[in-house]
Amino acid sequence: MRLDTPSTVAVNPIVPVVELRDVGKVFASEPPVVALEGVNLIVDPGDYVSVVGPSGSGKSTLLNIVGCLDRHTSGQFLLDGIDVATLKDGQRAALRGQKIGFVFQTFHLLAHRTVEENVMLAELYRRGDRKGRRERAEAALHKVGLDSRLGFKPTKLSGGERQRVAMARALVASPSLLLCDEPTGNLDSKNTEALLDLFDGLRADGLTIIVITHDEAVSRRAQRRVRIVDGILTEDDLTAVTALSRSSGPDVTSPR
Fold this sequence. Notes:
Elements: E1 18-27, E2 33-43, E3 48-52, H1 59-66, E4 74-79, E5 82-83, H2 89-99, E6 100-104, H3 115-120, H4 133-143, H5 159-171, E7 177-181, H6 189-204, E8 208-212, H7 216-220, E9 224-229, E10 232-236, H8 238-246
Parallel strand pairs: 3-8, 3-9, 6-7, 7-8
Antiparallel strand pairs: 1-2, 1-4, 4-5, 9-10
């Protein structure tokens, strides 16, 4: 909860990384398909949010809108205080490249390129100085604990290591927001735990993270959990859920 501050005290208000105000998304068809309806969500800098819900509930649509890959049809979406609807396609793509890193279930690595070259490729799609790309790629690989794999091709890496390369690629541009779509879907339990530890460390460093997942264990590692059902979003009270889980009772959720 944010408290009002007396007008005599000068403060810099927190600008949310993501702010959705009554956002809706309707796909044109016959009849029209309502994918999101009246979605309100504020994600502040450093928040770690998991998004859960059944297949077809609107999770991917939400990610595509927040990731500036698709446009909403009603309401307002602000990314770092910028009204995305006011941007032309080129401006929206530039904002996406500057502000957002993506991690997916499939790693999307080029088998014939080294790990650092795969990370460097991320900068082909963003504006800015190309000098020092290799150094930035190596720094990103260091952040995810892959210093010892420089020069390796993805085919020589484990699944967990390949996902870490994908993480480094998402982080190389120092984004404001990391969007992850089922990032543990192709990992075993050991590598899943290692990736979640990495998320914890990134959040401790101040990165804002949104993770879409079907995995209950993954969702509970987040600071906040929102749930989408039939395009409608509610937020779980994780404190209550955790307490109830410890008492071996059934899982219940409480919308914010």
